[in-house]
Specification:
Layout: H1 2-32, H2 35-42, H3 49-68, H4 77-101, H5 105-112, H6 119-141
């Protein structure tokens, strides 16, 4: 019984840590890439930037609750697939556009943190961490 409680606490701690890491990474991407101001600039809607920020926050909150509470859309599967694909495509497209504009973020970050000598190790740690995390998720949680 004590082992079950310890295992649950460890799982909760790992989940919370992962959520904080992903959330802070997403916020860092939005801030470093200036995604909201760039979007307002492209749309020529500078005064509407508060609406863009609100839409991102509301979308994040909605999809978090939808995931946690297992909300289901009562739509035909083809329409739901198209709707979800469209929203995902818009998000990934905007993120990819921001990445192509700001490709030198990692070298600048490494230079500012005096990690230029360890650049290969830094990139390898990120790649291996993502690979191991994905494998762990797929092998442990999906089976």
């Amino acid at each position: 019984m004590m082992a079950d409680i310890a295992g649950n606490l460890l799982s909760a701690l790992i989940g919370l840590s992962g959520g904080l890491a992903v959330g802070s990474g997403m916020v860092a991407l939005l801030i470093v890439f200036d995604l909201i101001p760039r979007l307002a600039q492209i749309a020529r809607a500078y005064r509407m930037s508060v609406w863009f920020e609100t839409a991102i926050i509301c979308g994040s909150m909605y999809w978090t609750f939808a995931d946690f509470l297992n909300w289901k859309l009562a739509l035909p599967s083809a329409f739901a697939l198209l709707f979800t694909g469209l929203l995902s495509g818009v998000f990934i497209g905007m993120l990819a556009a921001a990445l192509t504009e700001v490709m030198n973020v990692l070298p600048i970050l490494a230079k500012r943190m005096n990690l230029s000598d360890y650049m290969v190790g830094l990139v390898m740690a990120m790649v291996l961490g993502k690979t191991v995390g994905s494998l762990f998720d797929w092998l442990y949680y999906q089976w």
